[in-house]
Design brief:
By secondary structure, the chain is of the alpha/beta class. It is 14% helix and 27% strand. The strands form 4 sheets. It has a 3-stranded antiparallel sheet, with no helix packed on it. A 3-stranded mixed sheet has the order 5-6-8, with no helix packed on it. The chain has a two-stranded parallel sheet with strand order 4-7. A hairpin with a 2-residue loop joins strand 5 and strand 6. The longest helix has 19 residues.
Length: 139
Amino acid sequence: MNVNLNVKVVSYDETYLTLADETPFKTDTVIWTAGVKGNPINGLTEETFVGNRIVINEFNQVLNTRSIFAIRDVASYISKENPKGFPMLATVEQQYGKQLPNNSINLIKEKALQSFAYKDKGTMATTDRRKPVVNLTNW
């Protein structure tokens, strides 16, 4: 497995991934990580993006692809229960992070993928140096 950090991907066609310096990689699996805002990627259609977030299915796969996964703040799983996708919170991201390795291994081994099921553990933030705000929803 190759891990490339701090490099820009300019295209992916389900067979080859190409970096900005024109380095090609033959691969059938891509794990994309980025900052808070998703950017269009050559090879993915405009319909793949909603609000600069990549639309994924319940297995974290980019829509209409088999081996491209997206998680974290650049991804959005839209469902009847979550029409705007899950919130961009650490608890969501941690749960995505536990599911994705299992699904990528299952994909390689041609086993069934696991659907993502978010468990809301609540939200905590600070409004000032000593003023926390907590919303415990399912405890």
